[in-house]
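ESCALATION

Customer reports they have been waiting on this structure for their group meeting. Please prioritize. Original submission:
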Amino acid sequence: MPTDVFGVLANPVRRRLLERGPGREGREADGEREEHRATRPCPAWWTPQIRLLGRPAYHVPTTPEAGGVPDPYALLETVRRIRAEGGDPRVLLLSVADDPTATVAPPELVRESCEAAVAEGLHVISDETWRDTLHHPRDTVLLSPAEMCPDDVTVLADLAGGGLVPASWPCAVARFPPTGAARADRYGDPRARALDVLTALGAVLPAPVAPAVAHALDEPEDVLVPALRAAGVHGRLAAAAHRAVLAAGALARPPRAGRHLYADLGPLRAGLAAHGVTDSLELEQHLTARLGRPVPGGHRFGDELGALRVRLDTGPLLGATPPERAETLAAREPERLPQAVRALAALTAVLDDLADPTAQNGARR
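Update from on-call: job pushed to the front of the queue and completed.
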């Protein structure tokens, strides 16, 4: 996307950029609080951050084909219902390359949802952290809302999430809408207002990190090639995990981006009940104990507690040691390596156990 230095901010914490993003100008003085729409499910940090800021958050369903972008008709219905009840929705949060569902919304869905949001006077904040982690970039079309509605979209991205910088280097960037003459002041220009607040908070990139981040944003070969290779490896591992989930009788959308898989274990409800699992919190605890690694439940992503959904991360499939992980990231067929085979076999065994309603406490009867 065309971008210049006057339309971008960098910050160590992505949440700060959401906190000071567009939608706030002119409202703090009169005591108004804008309300946010977010997809269901959504990234785990969205809802807590909105609530921390003292703002109401409303979740809008997505379509069966992809997460991250709301169903446009459900969005219109939700906005109009909230307004009829006296609410004042102003912001829509979405994610074209989505966490947690690992899907990529088709361009026509993005266009319809953004047009519906703009028509209702909503400002769109597009979290594009995972846009550089497409599993098959040549076969996947990813279109940013900022390319469709440039005057009404702010883009957020965590560079560590996209693999452009190490995870220990916290850096997020925001691309603001173009500022015209009508908004060329500290109160009408959202970037200027955000810059004022972030400066006052001392929220600046550490001096050693800033030049490295600038280098990464140029997407040179030494940064882009390893990132694309890692995305492909995670894609193959996610596809293998997806096959294991489907083979057990559970559901999941095919993963297209990111380093995770969002599984719906609702069809295994009978087997889960035999293990005392009846909601996503208990499912999280059960799978975390069985697999020996964190398996966050769907309630952390805005899903209903009663929905038996979890996010399965592909990171543990790389291996348990640095040499194993390095070997996996360099492999053409990472799912065939012993460390990946072991991890996938453990996942398959747990899912098969849950698929059998006669199983209890991890043993077959």
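Sent to customer with the following note: The radius of gyration is 21 Å.
Escalation resolved.
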